[in-house]
User: Which sequence fits this backbone?
C-alpha cells in the first residue's frame, strides 16, 4: 500500500508543487507546503481508499494545510500595517478610561489562571489566544464537547476567584 502511495505521489509531484506555488505565492513557502503535504499523505496512507482519485485527495490535503496555516498566521497577527503613522490608528478624539487595574492587576489574573488544573488551563489559554474549539480539540486530541466544557468550567472558576479577590479588597 505504501509503495503505491509513493508511486502515485511521484506521478503528481509536479502538479502538487505548482498548486503549492499558486497558493503561497513564493517558492520557499511552496516547498514547505509541499513537504508538509507529502508527510501528511504518507503518514495517513492507511486512510486512502484504493480506486479513488489520489490527486484530488492529495490536493484536498494540501489546501487544508494551507488554510490552517493561514488561519494560524492571522491569529498570531503576522499581517502588519505598514502605514507611516500606524501608532495613530484608532486614536479617536475621545479617550476611554480603563478601570481594569482598579479591580485586579494583570499579574493577579495570570496567577489565577496559573492555579487552574492543567486540563482546564491549556484549553482556556488556547481559546484566549483565538483558537476555535474544533482546532483546540484537534490539537489536544480530545472530543469537542470535552474542550467546550473545560473552557466553560475554567471561566467559571476564574470568575469565582476574581469575585473572591474583589471581596477581599473591599
Assistant:
Amino acid at each position: 500500500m505504501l509503495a503505491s502511495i509513493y508511486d502515485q505521489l511521484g506521478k503528481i509531484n509536479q502538479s502538487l508543487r505548482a498548486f503549492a506555488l499558486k497558493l503561497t505565492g513564493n517558492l520557499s513557502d511552496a516547498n514547505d507546503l509541499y513537504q508538509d503535504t507529502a508527510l501528511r499523505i504518507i503518514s495517513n496512507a492507511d486512510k486512502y481508499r484504493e480506486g479513488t482519485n489520489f490527486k484530488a485527495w492529495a490536493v484536498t490535503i494540501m489546501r487544508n494545510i494551507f488554510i490552517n496555516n493561514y488561519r494560524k498566521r492571522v491569529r498570531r497577527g503576522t499581517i502588519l500595517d505598514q502605514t507611516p503613522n500606524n501608532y495613530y490608528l484608532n486614536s479617536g478624539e475621545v479617550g476611554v478610561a480603563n478601570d481594569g487595574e482598579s479591580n485586579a492587576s494583570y499579574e493577579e489574573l495570570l496567577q489565577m489562571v496559573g492555579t487552574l488544573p492543567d486540563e482546564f488551563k491549556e484549553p482556556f489559554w488556547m481559546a484566549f489566544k483565538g483558537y476555535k474549539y474544533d482546532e483546540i480539540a484537534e490539537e489536544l486530541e480530545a472530543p469537542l464537547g470535552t474542550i467546550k466544557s473545560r473552557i466553560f468550567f475554567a471561566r467559571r472558576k476564574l470568575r469565582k476567584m476574581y469575585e473572591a479577590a474583589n471581596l477581599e479588597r473591599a
Notes: Residues 104 and 165 are 8 Å apart (CA to CA). The chain has a mean pLDDT of 82. DSSP finds nine helices and no strands in the chain. The two ends are 69 Å apart (CA to CA).
